[in-house]
Amino acid sequence: MDFLFLFGLSCLKITKRVFNGKWENFCRDSNGRPEICTWNNHYQAEVVMNISQMKEVLAEILTKTNLTPCVVGHRGVGKSAGITQACREIGRDYVALRLGQMEVGDLVGIPYREEKVMHWSQPSWWPVAGAPATIVHCDELNRAQQEDTLQAIFQFVEPPVKGEQRRLHTHVLDQKHKVVVSINPPDGTYQVATLDRALLDRMVMIYVETDYNCWARYAKEQQFDETVQQFLSAYPNLLAKPGAAIDMQMEPTERAWEMVSTLRRCCRFPEDLEMEIYAGIVGQEAAVSFLRWSREQKERPVTARQVLDNWSDVEAQVKQQRDDLQAVTLNDLVMTLEVDAGLTLGQEQNLVAYIGELTRDLKFGLVKALLKNPQVAEILCKDDYDAVILETIECISREAS
Question: The whole model's pTM is what?
Fold first, then answer.
């Protein structure tokens, strides 16, 4: 069987066949012959998104976290324009810093003395506490000509630790103001500095590339010349010359996984963009492994022991389970309690909490099965659990009569 998988902007035809007694993925080599493929070889350099997707991701990160996104893309793709549009769409003011034109004094201010104490004047671009929520765009970060300028901005792009505020030298940025970065990739075709690993590790890399369909929608909205639009509709390959594959060689670190955790807790991204986002933090190999593991876990039904012993850990998963997986959990609970119905107070409460999350029909079926077990029936009939159980037991009694 042939399947067409859409992953981010990539489109890959994969053939599923039985091989060595199990399903394997087959792809076509350059000669059209089938070959076994893995996630890693076929999602190589496919961790990119278009400008519309970039704006969607930026909106989530900038409104819901204190992390610093860094948009990486070739010249002319629309990085700066997309960031400006994203700020407008989320109702934020916008301040652009062209770091290639700035010196340290432009960032940290000019020193002055009050009696015996040295102070630094606040830069004119600095968003004050009373200003509307503002996005500070550090444009052309890797074009900073002086090493000390790059070192000065290092502190500013670093996300603040919990409970703290972002700083630049002696200046403190109000929590409502956020920072975004954009750069050209250091692939040898641009006159840019190489950013060190410690700086990259403090940002969420968002790789963007040219995309005809995205551009065509924008061109229609902006009423571009009809002849230009029609020509590129006929020759979309002439929209832009493809640049080298973008790869900032991100690697997993403790800080990187903390950022992934923050994004998963605070943000909601389209499923087809998760790979692109996480690969820009922990690298492609780790992102592929993580997402594959996560999806495998979602396909496994919650066990009775997880419900009874670790309800808080699986509550969210239970709520998202398909009915067929929920049925497996229900049957496992019934069988487990038939073997050993001795429950601690915490396990009793977890069982009742689980029953409370079920739909009416599933709740009815589970309670009816559990009431056949005298020890469990005694637990369910406790006054403490009436809010969850009583109505179901009354329905069962009416049905029996």
Answer: 0.69
